[in-house]
Amino acid sequence: MKKLLLATAFAASQVALLAQLSPELAVTPPDHPHLTSTATAAPYAATITAEDMRSYLSVLASDEFEGRETGEEGQRKAADFIAAHFEKLGLPKIGNDGTYFQNIAFTAESWDNGQIELTINGEGYRHLSDFVSFPSANSNRERFATEEVVFLGYGIDDPKYSDYAGRNVQDKTILIYMDEPVDNNGNSWLTGTPELSAWSTDWRKKLEVAHQYGVATVLLIDADIKKTVGEARKTLLSSEMHMGEGGNPEGRYANNMFISSTLAKEIVGKKMKKFVKLRDGIKKSGKPASMGFPARLSMVQKKNKRQLLGSNVLGYLEGSDPLYKHEVVVVSAHYDHLGKKGPAIYHGADDNGSGSSMVMDIAQAFVEAKKAGNSPRRSILFLLVSGEEKGLLGSEYYSEHPIFPLENTVADVNVDMVGRTDSKHDSNPNYIYVIGSNRLSTELHDINEAANEAYAQLDLDYTYNAKNDPNRFYYRSDHYNFAKKGIPSIFYFSGTHKDYHQPSDTVDKIMFEKMEKIGNLIFYTTWELANRERRIKVNVKED
């Protein structure tokens, strides 16, 4: 209570001072059409402090927690630490067996003892250098060999364009491009516009189709194999992880490898001119074509599987209004990271110890409000998920096995990497990237804008919210598992930096004062979502 009284006095003095020095920034919330309930929230927002978040993060990103890899002891220690915080706050145990945990069974898959091999015309090539293959997208096989490879364009089977129409590829090895045919004006033959279809962005879709047509192996020509290798290396040097029995338990995908352009040239061999002419003809005419090449290929894809347990941590604050407390606002962050690779600990202070610490502090702010008789009208679920680094698995599990019905879930407010700056903003750390706020609900976007104008005055950067963002960050954090279910979602992110996914992502580099401002913005946005008279509407049709 002492902390709350001090915070109340501090908040009141700050508001008065702000009004004197800069009246245009002292926005009174009731005067703002998108802020209808935040007038009483300032004392509780003031309890979100840099000191609190530093204390939480210093534990989460410590050597003792060993990088918090899902299924490992460090992750379990982190889950216990977060659960102890929720217990101290007096939140009820709504998880499995009267705990704070939603338990998840994972299957970890890796190539067994280096049993991933590729030989072309007698020459051996290196995994994670010349080619990449993901255990989760492949079935286990000892050795496969062929003496023919069939170029099948882009591996697309669509009513507007099909590489498979009229062709028998049963038990064949096919060579395809990862994108889709585009004419000389830059328009896709599938969409008729520069906007590419899902065939270009979802390579697993091509593997599913190949399996349906009986293809034995798919070789995907990756023009930027170095980037693919870089993104895959840390996962594949340990293991991929999937919920339940694994990623490809019934042969959902045709076996596959991503290969460099150099390896593709080795396969094509002396028929390169004919191959280029055929490929360019497809682009020019929009009509599929194929050809075969004599090439001796041999490959081994031998997997190792093991079962692991992980958990989401659930902090639930029940709403006070009998009419609205069945509705839930989710505030999410992933607390897992990459763990250890040999003696090196990947601390994950920014990714995502920063977001986890912030959600823990926002939870205590709402508990302070409840103690003072200002409990939110709607319920709030503070959801700390694991398995994000393995493919958004914890949030996916929650979205498929929700504790509260998804139809009663008002929004997801997601926090992932908010403690640093990227190179674009090195000279101005007073910013935050906002992703997804207007994808499903313009009201969510307007509330966040208004809360920022009134309380945080951060530069809101929407660069990564663009639908053509090549980084595809909208699809790469836990909010997406809510958004794809039609739940309005907003993702706060400060961008990547040189320590991203490195052991050097440590607490000493975190900008806690910056985090405090971001925490206030997120708190006020969540407060409005939880207290307004009418829940926000889904009023945008997502493509």
Compact description:
The chain is of the alpha/beta class and 543 residues long.
- State mean pLDDT (0 to 100 scale): 91
CATH topology of the largest domain: Aminopeptidase
Give the fraction of residues assigned to helices.
Answer: 25-40%
Structural class, judged by helices and strands? alpha/beta
Q: Tell me what portion of residues adopts beta-strand conformation.
A: 15-25%
What do you see in this structure?
This protein has 14 helices and 19 strands. By secondary structure, it is an alpha/beta fold. The chain has two domains: 2-92 and 318-531, Aminopeptidase (3-Layer(aba) Sandwich); 109-305, Glucose Oxidase, domain 1, CATH 3.50.30. The strands form three sheets. The protein has a 15-stranded mixed β-sheet that branches. Strands 5-6 form a two-stranded antiparallel sheet. Strand 1 (101-120) and strand 2 form a beta hairpin. Helix 3 crosses helix 10, helix 3 crosses helix 14 (512-531) and helix 10 packs across helix 14 (512-531). It is globular, with a radius of gyration of 26 Å. Residues 8-30 have low confidence and may be disordered.
Keywords for this entry:
15-stranded mixed β-sheet; alpha/beta; 2 domains; 23% strand; globular; Glucose Oxidase, domain 1; Aminopeptidase
Topology readout:
Elements: H1 2-21, H2 42-45, H3 50-60, H4 73-88, E1 101-120, E2 123-125, E3 131-132, E4 141-151, E5 157-158, E6 161-162, E7 173-177, H5 198-201, H6 203-212, E8 217-221, H7 225-236, E9 240-243, E10 255-259, H8 261-268, H9 272-285, E11 291-317, E12 328-334, E13 339-341, E14 344-346, H10 349-371, E15 379-385, H11 393-400, E16 409-415, E17 431-435, H12 442-456, E18 459-461, H13 480-483, E19 489-493, H14 512-531
Parallel strand pairs: 4-7, 7-8, 8-10, 12-15, 12-16, 16-19, 17-18
Antiparallel strand pairs: 1-2, 1-9, 1-11, 3-10, 4-11, 5-6, 11-15, 13-14, 17-19
